[in-house]
Amino acid sequence: MRVEPSKGAGTMAEEEQGSVDAMNRVTTPFGPKATADEVLDGVDLGNKTFVVTGGASGIGRETVLALARRGARVVVGARNPDAATAAFSTDVSEHDMDVSVRQLDVSDPASINRFIEGWQGSLDAFVANAGIMALPARELDVHGWELQLATNYLGHFALARGFRPALASSGGRVVVLSSTAHLRAAFDFTDPQYRDRPYDRWNAYSQSKTADVLLAAGIASRWSDDGISANALMPGWITTNLQRHLDEGTLRAMGAMDESGNRIEQSFFKSPAQGAATSVLLAASPLVADVTGKYFEDNQESEVVESGEGRSTGVARYAVDPDNAERLWELGSRALM
Length: 337
Hints:
The protein is of the alpha/beta class and 337 residues long. It is built from eleven helices and ten strands. The chain has an eight-stranded mixed β-sheet with strand order 3-2-1-4-5-6-7-8, with helices on both faces. A two-stranded parallel ribbon has the order 9-10.
């Protein structure tokens, strides 16, 4: 006779497992409002090379500056290289930092190929930072992929594959920026491009951010023998150019703008320098040198949760599921053939 556990026993077992999981999660001494410079204080990055996509503004720019201040060579991928070069000119000249800019549009396969083909030498970390959010209407890239998914996931997948030899030569790291939005939507393998279902800009963004977590999970699983690690992260709530597609009505509904058109930053918002902290932690800190296949927020490894409904923290189990990561890898590989 099989004895089924009582509801109370099951709840106790789940609580015990949760306690074990919490004890095993990676922690660091840095809090939610730590800056990128504080995370890298005392870390020498001389002779190390990093690539940061979308590094000309916002979180990306603070990531670049924090790495360069520690002596790293940083290559910035930017859609408008002239504007990006100008954005760094004062910092580079005043502080003798090694920051260079190359043209890169992560939604354009030709631009991605040029960026990869022009690469020479090893690579210590690739930071997949560029992204777009909440496009009002459905747009497609040359592969027929919905543009948020193509930009946030597929372009970075192509870049990571191209950089694999350079990363392997140095035991490099891949850092993928995701979002708490991933908790709102699993990846829809039946219709990821919204061909048969109505396009929803927030669902599309959320799906693309789930894909970003799965990208890190796939790299961690497939490339571990190369010495390559990969982790994803949620940078926090930050006012940046990422919100450029949001109209004033949407911003007001989110509590991010008052009736006079002034932006409102809630107490839990971070500055771009604070938002870049988890990025540089995963890209360059010795504290997480051997960590791979994880999701971080506020400079700590996140809890894996069964459902994102009603939550704003944690990583959804579907976003770190190995089978989902493998399916998405194959889907992305077919698109890039």
